[in-house]
Design a protein that fits this description.
Order of helices and strands: HHEHHEEHE
Number of helices: 5
Radius of gyration: 26 Å
Largest sheet: 4 strands, antiparallel
Oligomer: single chain
Distance between the termini: 73 Å
Number of strands: 4
């Protein structure tokens, strides 16, 4: 576009355009930094710290690292609620979310120091004893068994507290 303006107006116009471009660039940079920080926070909540550090290091390399380690001595625990589908049909969405939050909190409190929570799957739980590093132990099987028994007791107590019959199944493989 050709603008025919006196030199002083052209200079003012050019300065405003440059200022607006710089301002937009600064705003975009701030948005990217905020998104990056949010992404790192989310990763720290979802993954073990060792994996997050490998992911951060990979951003600076051309060849990605293999993220995984072989753990020979581990025990897997799976836990789910008996009759959840039927149970959930009778609750409105807010009641269901409140109930699931209470179950997740109960599960997390029991497992916190002894097992790594791999995933909450709807009304179920998958956890591992013996890895990653902070959970390594030669007593992984007994830790999983103790956690399974504690889960059963904690859910019984929750069931009494909220006056809803809840039963869980716990499976363990070592």
């Amino acid at each position: 576009t050709l603008l025919l303006l006196p030199p002083n107006l052209q200079s003012d116009y050019h300065e405003r355009v440059c200022h607006n471009k710089e301002k937009a660039q600064i705003e975009r940079t701030q948005m990217v930094e905020a998104a990056k920080k949010n992404g790192e926070t989310l990763l720290m909540k979802l993954l073990p710290p060792e994996v997050v550090s490998v992911l951060k290091d990979d951003r600076q390399r051309d060849i990605p690292s293999v993220i995984g380690e072989r753990c020979e001595k581990v025990t897997i625990l799976f836990c789910d609620m008996v009759g959840f589908t039927k149970f959930s049909r009778d609750l409105d969405p807010l009641q269901l979310m409140t109930f699931l939050r209470a179950i997740y909190y109960t599960f997390s409190a029991v497992l916190a120091d002894n097992m790594y929570t791999v995933e909450f799957i709807g009304h179920g739980l998958l956890a591992v004893a013996g890895c990653p590093n902070q959970y390594k132990s030669d007593h992984h099987a007994s830790q999983a068994i103790n956690c399974g028994l504690q889960l059963i007791e904690a859910v019984k107590k929750l069931s009494e507290d909220i006056k809803i019959t809840i039963q869980i199944r716990v499976g363990i493989h070592t």
